[in-house]
Structure formats: C-alpha cells, structure tokens
Amino acid sequence: MLRSGGFLVHLFHLLFHVLDLSTVLAAQRIYNDRPMAAQLYYITDRSQFPGDGGEQERRLLEKIAECAAAGVDMIQLREKDLNLRELEKLAWKAMAALGGSSTRLLINSRTDVALACGAHGVHLPGNDLHASEARAMFARAGISEPVIGVSAHSAADVASAEAHGADFAVFAPVFEKFKKKFEPGQKSGTANREGLEQLRRVCHRADSAQSPMPVLALGGITLANARECLQAGAAGIAAIRLFQQNDVHAVLKTLRETS
Asked: Which tens digits make up the pLDDT trace of 67-86?
C-alpha cells in the first residue's frame, strides 16, 4: 500500500500524463481540422513575355526559378508551338531552373519528353491519353510515382480523370472563357458567368471516392477572386498571368493567407 506522500506523488504524475495526453490530442485535432494550404500551379506561356524568342525564353526560365524559390507547388511547361527537340531542350533548362526546390515540373501532353528530361510528371489535355495509360508508360521506365494532372471542362471530364487514377484535375474556365490568341496585357477571354457554380458542383460531386481527387481552378483567376474558388471547394489555383505578370512571392503570400 502506498504511503500518503507516495500516493500524492503518484496522483500528481497520473494527472500530469492525463493532461499532457489531452493537450497532445487537442493539438492533433486542431491540426487535422486545419484546411490544407491551397495547391498553386503555374502554367507557362513564354509568348506573353516581351522581346524576341531568346528574350522570351530567358524571362520564362527566370520566372520558373522565381516560382520555385517562392514555393509554387507545381509548374506545367506548356509551350505548344515548340517541336519535340525544342521542347526537350527547354524542359532540361526548366528542370535546372528549379534548383534544389520541392517544386515539381510537369510537361504538357508529352510523356516522352517528361521521361527524357526527368520531369516529375505530365499534364494531359482532355483529348489526350488517359492518366492510367500515361502512368503505365512511367512504370515501364521504372518511375513508380509520377504526378499526373488532367484538364477538365465538365463533371464528366473530372469523373473520367478520377476513374483513370489522375492525381488532380484542372477545371476551366471558371471566370473567363479563353481566346486562342491575345496580346500581352490583354484579357485572354470573356466572362464565364456559370463557371464558379460549375466548379462548386465538380468539387462536391456526390459520386467521388472517399478521398476525392483534388480539383484546381483555372480561368481568369486573380488575387481578388481566388478566395471564391477555394470557398467553392477548389484544392488550389492554376494560372498563367497571375504568376507571369506579378511578383510571385507576393502572390503566394496573399494566396496562402486566403487559404
């Protein structure tokens, strides 16, 4: 039997451990309930930079390095006018521009270029390979966990991307319908009045898996309206001009605070 002094010491230690455990569990609940930071996805378009071809490439690589240093999660190299050799050469330079950052580079459409330059994955347009097919190509090359994104313009597109094992979908357009060509500084399209509600529906789809595939928002997104996308359920923001035409560190600071 414990003496009274020993009993008090034992009781003190018991209460200490109970309180300590309660504190840990409370902290864990706060952490688990905390919303994840918005995923940020820079999509490149060197044609929007001023200057000749060499100057546009230089500015593009500087922007990629800036995004990597600032902590942008992913970058899609989307330079559709380049031939295979030119794209691969630029992709090698883009990989080097990432430095030692954790930013992942995805190549638009060309899984072969992604494999050749050691990119982290590929972004598939809606009319391209299925994500499962691209993943099989990476697997045959000995790469088990590539990052595969898919473009989506409807709930059916999102469902198909999820069914084929895509890591995420980019839903567009949210605020702006795209034009094929536009001048630097000019709006790239016209307002899409239904886009935000469409985004909300695909983000809260009833038939999604228990851990639904993340959906990022794209199309006319600015610092002023990004919060609306996240409140609609988007897991992050994808953009061209938002990153190319602004100081990326300032953009990230605002978006991280928004999320």
From this structure: 999 999 999 999 999 999 99
